[in-house]
Design a protein that fits this description.
This protein is of the alpha/beta class and 624 residues long. It is built from 21 helices and 25 strands. It has three domains: 3-256, Aminohydrolase, N-terminal nucleophile (Ntn) domain (Glutamine Phosphoribosylpyrophosphate, subunit 1, domain 1, 4-Layer Sandwich), CATH 3.60.20; 266-455, Rossmann fold; 461-624, 3-Layer(aba) Sandwich (Rossmann fold), CATH 3.40.50.10490. Strands 3-2-4-1-10-9-11-15 form an eight-stranded antiparallel β-sheet, covered by helices on one side. The protein has a seven-stranded antiparallel β-sheet with strand order 5-6-7-8-12-13-14.
């Protein structure tokens, strides 16, 4: 989730670009850069590893003079560690074509190999650089070198070169492209990543979201997937990827700049809850089908032989990531692979008994969690191999693990994890299905059906989010409660734990998560008349037992809210219902967690808590 800015007009471009990057820095902050055209010297390029303030200081020492067109970028790394070489913008061999990109190009290795064979020289480890060289190659194919230096000749050629390059890309992208020989036009394109055009008077803008240009204009056009824009200072034309013109009417943005950073949402946490379909999609994209070990071998260098030979999996994590690990245990064991889960902070003794027959899976959003890193070192000292699941490229965990699977969720600003958690869940499913196929623990037809159901999950999450108004009403009803009980069975038990953790983190109230079958072994004693009990009761082989546990709670005076699907609701008797779409039981945690996140958010909102920065908590716990 990187940040893109673009400007063409009459003002100094770098002033506009840097101002926009500062407003987009929440989208990425490991490196940044700008590019523009100096009318006398040609391409102007400044990049730094670090924050936008460092870029601003670098530009101040060598400003872009008379340059009124440019593009900028603030990066959240996905390919290549955070560094100046890997920072955007990226250029072609001649330093004439320059590009910024947000997203993931799935087939960049194939493109890069082809370009290397034709003599292109690469300067970074990124997927993005393959695109800018591909555009350079398309320009060569159009024989632009022999074209007249007139804009009416060069601009259509530039557009066609970019359009042809885009046709060869697989994956997600929002991009802005500048060619030094066409300083009067910027090109923009979108596929599965956000991009918006800002319309001003004698100037126009490109950005990942409107916060980058709201200071200058409130008129905007949101590009759709499969669309391009040719942006000049006094006009913008829109096209589909086939080159056919499309029409757009601008909208007037009513948000202020702070709200714009949050996409119009009141808090980053709510925005990130609503970004979860995209988070799952990004984590699954290109990793499921075909179901062969070569996907894991190619992407993370995890050998199929190792997967076939291990005798079990040991998951280590902390907090919310630990709950993702618990779901992972159910999923791996569903496919016949023995799995254990431990808090990283409690792993020391178990580390002494792991060996090369056990694959360690370490889960950390930041990749800097101190307890997890310490546990990884202990496991490796015992001879075990470590696979990391993380959201942060270049983090300490990625350097110490033997293999790394990135969740590609983008920066998560809210301290209470939501989209990073669901990305971790998606990663568990990706690994489990591939392990099952490689170990021949599942028939190919069943594996394909499972994968196809998993690929439907992003749209089902969207449907679950549409029920937020119902969740809000129930949360307002319980807003003054100081005690909550969350119950579930089997694979949704970790979701009960996660629901309780979320409400504790941001609402500062007492909440407990329990395996529903353990109710009668003690926890039932804490139930009092009117106590809120939230029960995950979607369709499952345990549904009749969950129904009994709900009745037990009701008999002691509890006011039960049931998380159900359209089929399970027929069996469950509760005071309140929250309905999510039905999916296979094994995939249900990806949906049942959504209303519990929303419930915690709305309770905290009613209590006027600092939702994005709850007291006593930090985003990354880097001390033991």
């Amino acid at each position: 989730m990187c940040g893109i800015t673009g400007y063409i007009g009459e003002k100094t471009a770098t002033d506009i670009l840097v101002d926009g990057l500062k407003r987009l820095e929440y989208r990425g902050y490991d490196s940044c850069g700008v590019a523009g055209i100096n009318p006398e010297k040609g391409l102007y390029l400044k990049r730094v590893s670090g924050r936008v303030d460092a870029l601003d200081a670098l530009i101040a020492k060598d400003p872009l003079k008379k340059g009124t067109v440019g593009i900028g970028h603030t990066r959240w790394a996905t390919h290549g560690v955070p560094s100046e070489d890997n920072a955007h913008p990226h250029t072609d061999c001649k330093n004439e074509v320059v590009l910024v990109h947000n997203g993931i190009i799935e087939n960049y290795l194939e493109i890069k190999e082809q370009l290397l064979r034709t003599g292109h020289k690469f300067k970074s480890e990124t997927d993005t650089e393959a695109v800018v060289h591909l555009i350079e190659e398309k320009i060569k194919g159009l024989n632009v070198s022999g074209a007249a230096a007139r804009s009416d000749v060069l601009e259509p050629m530039f557009f066609e070169a970019v359009r042809r390059a885009i046709a060869e890309l697989k994956g997600s992208f929002a991009m802005a492209v500048l060619w030094a020989r066409c300083p009067g036009m910027l090109l923009a394109a979108r596929q599965h990543s956000p991009l918006v055009i800002g319309l001003g008077g004698g100037e126009n803008f490109i950005a990942s979201d409107v916060s980058a240009f709201l200071k200058y204009t409130k008129k905007a056009v949101f590009l759709n997937d499969g669309e391009m824009a040719a942006v000049k200072k006094d006009s913008v034309l829109y096209f589909n990827f086939q080159g056919k013109k499309v029409e757009h009417s601008p909208v007037t943005i009513q948000w202020d700049s702070t709200m714009a950073e949050k996409g119009g949402y009141k808090h980053f946490m709510l925005k990130e809850i609503h970004e979860q379909p995209e988070s799952v999609e990004n984590t699954l994209r290109g990793r499921l089908l075909p179901l062969k070990g070569d996907i894991l071998q190619r992407e993370i260098n995890l050998p199929s032989e190792l997967i076939r030979n291990i005798k079990g999996v040991q998951i280590i994590a902390c907090g919310t990531a630990y709950h993702a690990g618990l779901v992972g245990r159910y999923v791996f064991e569903n496919f016949g692979l023995p799995t254990s889960v431990d808090f990283a902070s409690e792993f020391s003794d178990r580390a002494k008994i792991v060996n090369k027959d056990i694959l360690i899976i370490a889960v950390s959003q930041s990749g800097e969690t101190a307890d997890t890193l310490y546990a990884v070192r202990e496991a490796k000292a015992s001879g075990a191999k470590v696979l990391a699941i993380t959201n942060t490229l270049g983090s300490t965990l990625t350097r110490e693990a033997d293999y790394v699977l990135y969740t590609h969720c983008g920066p998560e600003i809210g301290v209470a994890s939501t989209k990073a958690f669901i990305g971790q869940l998606a990663a568990m499913y990706v690994l489990a299905i591939h392990f099952a196929v490689i170990r021949k623990n599942i028939f190919d037809a069943d594996a394909r059906e499972y994968a196809n159901e998993l690929l439907k999950i992003p749209r089902l999450i969207e449907a679950a989010l549409e029920g937020s108004d119902a969740v809000l009403k129930i949360a307002e009803h319980f807003a003054k409660s100081e005690h909550f009980l969350f119950i579930a069975r089997h694979i949704n038990f970790p979701i009960a734990l996660e629901g309780a953790l979320k409400i504790k983190e941001i609402s500062y109230v007492h909440a407990e998560g329990y395996a529903a079958g353990e109710m009668k072994h003690g926890p039932i004693a804490i139930i009092y008349k009117g106590m809120p009990v939230l029960a995950v009761a979607t369709t499952s082989k345990m549904l009749s037992l969950v129904a009994n546990n709900i009745e037990e709670a009701k008999a002691r005076g509890a006011e039960v809210t049931a998380i159900v699907d359209e089929d399970s609701r027929k069996l469950i008797k509760a005071s309140h219902y929250i309905t999510v779409p039905r999916t296979a039981e094994i995939l249900s945690p990806l949906l049942t967690v959504i209303p519990l996140q929303l419930f915690a958010y709305f309770i905290a909102l009613a209590k006027k808590c600092d939702i994005d920065k709850p007291r006593n908590l930090a985003k990354s716990v880097t001390v033991r």
